């Protein structure tokens, strides 16, 4: 007698919960890996990779939940922000614009991934990279706003601080696109919606 195991048609609530928790943990790990402190205001971290990957793999709704869970854990006192920081003060500090940008950015990356999935293109890294550029741009614009408002920098100085992050974040977006495309090739059901 032979038996076959087929891939699920779509995710279950339990799988969704596990995925959201796993990507919240990934965002935390990307935050606490040693950061490169290029200025006193915000460090170079792997956070953009963790955040964009959550959106690209999970889609908008679950991606946003994963990032909100990570932010909530950090706000509650777990040292899961850059340089091992934690607490509400970080959410109101110089990097607050980037943290808000992560929520908007993961939503944009998720919408892009869902759009590409409907067109059978979600395993195409170039398409994911091109769509993800908007998410990176929004993270940086909100980051500059945060630096201006919370680090007391004028707009030009805030943009200069942010400029140091662009090359690295484009590399992280490229890595996100390659990894997410491979994940969707291996698990083509990941972005299928559950029945209500
Ligand atoms: O305090 C935090 O945990 C957030 C730090 C934000 C760092 C930003 S994210 C976008 C840009 N790219 C980086 O590598 N660092 C900055």
UniProtKB/TrEMBL annotation:
Alphabetized Gene3D superfamilies for the sequence: 1.10.1760.20
Membrane spanning stretches: 12-34, 40-58, 65-84, 96-116, 128-151, 163-184
Gene Ontology CC entries for this record: plasma membrane
A Gene Ontology molecular function term of the record: biotin transmembrane transporter activity
Residue stretches in coiled coil: none
Pfam families listed in its UniProt record: BioY (PF02632)
Keyword Cell membrane attached: yes
Compartments (UniProt record): Cell membrane
Membrane topology: Multi-pass membrane protein
InterPro entries: BioY
The organism's place on the tree of life at top rank: Bacteria
Similarity remark: Belongs to the BioY family.
Protein's recorded name: Biotin transporter
Organism: Janibacter alkaliphilus
């Amino acid at each position: 007698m032979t038996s076959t195991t087929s891939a699920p048609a779509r995710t279950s609530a339990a799988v969704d919960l596990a995925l959201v928790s796993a990507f919240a943990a990934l965002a935390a790990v990307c935050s606490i890996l040693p950061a490169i402190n290029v200025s006193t205001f915000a460090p170079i971290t792997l956070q953009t990779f963790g955040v964009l990957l959550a959106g690209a793999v999970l889609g908008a709704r679950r991606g946003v939940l994963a990032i909100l869970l990570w932010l909530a854990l950090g706000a509650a006192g777990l040292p899961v922000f850059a340089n091992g920081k934690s607490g509400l003060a970080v959410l109101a500090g110089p990097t607050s614009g980037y943290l808000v940008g992560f929520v908007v950015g993961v939503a944009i990356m998720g919408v892009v991934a869902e759009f590409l999935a409907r067109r059978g293109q979600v395993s195409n890294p170039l398409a994911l990279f091109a769509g993800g550029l908007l998410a990176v741009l929004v993270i940086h614009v909100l980051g500059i706003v945060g630096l201006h408002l919370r680090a007391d920098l004028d707009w030009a100085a805030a943009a200069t601080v942010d400029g140091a992050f662009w090359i690295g974040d484009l590399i992280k977006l490229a890595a996100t696109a390659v990894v997410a495309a491979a994940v969707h090739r291996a698990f083509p059901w990941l972005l299928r919606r559950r029945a209500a």
